[in-house]
Structure prediction request, 227 residues.
Amino acid sequence: MGSVALAEELLLLAYDDESGRATGSHIGLDLGMAAAVLVELALAGRIAYVGGTLVVTNSAPTGEPIADEVLTRVVADTPHTPSSWLQRLRHGLRDRVLADLCAKNVICDVDETTADGYIHLHRYPTIDPSVEADVRDRLSRALIGDDQPDERTAALATLIGAVRMEPTLGLTGADVRAAHEQLEKISDHAGFTGTVSMEESSIRPSVALVVAVLVKAIQTALGTAKA
Prediction:
């Protein structure tokens, strides 16, 4: 695993560095982060998609706190569909991810709660920009390069495309559409969409299958699934 988890990478991209506030669709981000935690477990060889549900294949901890908390939940619960897990995990996950990044001193919690305590406001400006810079560099190389990115970066790119977070990459106008098309190509070549067979994909089939069903679940939840 990297220095930060996939869900944390998505959140860093979605939050403005200076204002410390989220941009874009809140529900899209929450669904994307829930999917990212499950993808993290698939990358670590802990879960798989079997018979329409996500099941645990290895219950050993990964060492990533949020992923391990979710792994414990999946182990203890009955099998559920990818859509069900996205809904179960997205509530409260953002606060957990924000707290984790604060503990790592990547962002800080600026409490602007009013003196009477009736209005609770928090901002999370960046204090260590190097982490997000690494994420953006990986994505930039994936978007402009001819080589298929590694599993982790391909999965991140696919999730960004699924929740339509292209504007967080600093793009506007026609560039947003062009980036979305490139993200879809990365997803296609990785075998996440069914247009490329699992055998031809450079991504492990077990991982590709988990990412594919989670992306479909996100798009269905957001009403963007293709007919």
In short: The longest strand covers residues 47-50. The mean pLDDT is 90. Strands lie at 47-50, 53-56, 110-111, 122-123. The domain at 6-222 is CATH 1.10.3630.10 (yeast vps74-n-term truncation variant fold).
